[in-house]
Amino acid sequence: MIKILKILLLLLLLLDNTYCYSQDIKMNKETEAIIRLGKDAVVQLALDIVDDSASIQNFAKIKVTTNGNEVYVYFSNPITYLPIETIFYTDVIVSIFGKTTVYSPISNGIDDTNNKNIPFYKETNETKLNTQFVLKAINKSTEVGSIDITDFEDTMIIREYKNHYAIEIVSEVQESSYTIEKISGNLSNVMHAHLVPPPLGSESMEVFREID
Questions:
Q1: Which of 30, 116, 39 is nearest to 74 (CA)?
Q2: Mean of the per-residue pLDDT values of the chain
Q3: Which domain of life is it from (predicted)?
Q4: Is the pLDDT of residue 147 over 70?
Q5: Which residues pair with 81 in a beta bridge?
Q6: pLDDT at residue 16 in the model
Q7: Would you list the domain boundaries of the chain?
């Protein structure tokens, strides 16, 4: 499952890290027409391509970008909490002109990836409280770095088990995993692996503009 997580994260990081931004890009007429609709309208177009059951309430962050020839919408949940025996779609990338999507389910204790009725993730009051407990435990620990949820740009999955939470975090340069005891909040089984990004020369960089 961490392979799926890394693939989705790589796609979501494309415009943040691998590609560069510019306000001065040449747009074709079709792109200009879409951009003039405004971010909210473009997001709705993307949701219509994704699924009738998806809405902005299913995602914590939404980004609209263009390279002048295509418009992409990135729906994401940087932190996802998975209760026991659940499965959700969490992050989605949409090509507006291509009318194509990229997304994959993330599960906990259930193998139902062929199910056509997998729901999109939506935070509840219970999952929010449990996530806050996990973040507090992480920030109290000296074994891992602290997390500021207000500017968290990586991807974290919290899987709930009977007596503990299993944590996976993937950033541009590192993936980490560890467990947190439910009662004590103590961390254990801490593991880190550094990721080496593929070399990219400046000539291969594509310029994107984020649409506000």
A1: 39
A2: 85
A3: Bacteria
A4: yes
A5: 158
A6: 47
A7: 2-211
Q: How far is CA 78 from CA 5, 143, 149, in A?
A: 11, 21, 9
Contact, 54 vs 92, CB < 8 A? yes
- Per-residue pLDDT, 15: 44
Provide φ and ψ at 165, rounded to 5°. Answer: -115, 140
6: pLDDT strictly greater than 90: no
**β-strand pairing of 105-108 with 155-160:** unpaired
CA distances for 117 relative to 88, 92, 102, 114, angstroms: 10, 16, 17, 9
Q: What is the pTM of this model?
A: 0.84
In Å, the largest CA–CA distance within the chain is 59
Ordered DSSP codes for 11-48: HHHIIIIISEE-S-----HHHHHHHHT-HHHHHHHHHH
Q: What count of residues does the chain have?
A: 212
Per DSSP, the residues of 81-104 read: EE-TTEEEE--EEEETTTTEEE--
Question: Given a cut of 60, is residue 64 above it in pLDDT?
Answer: yes
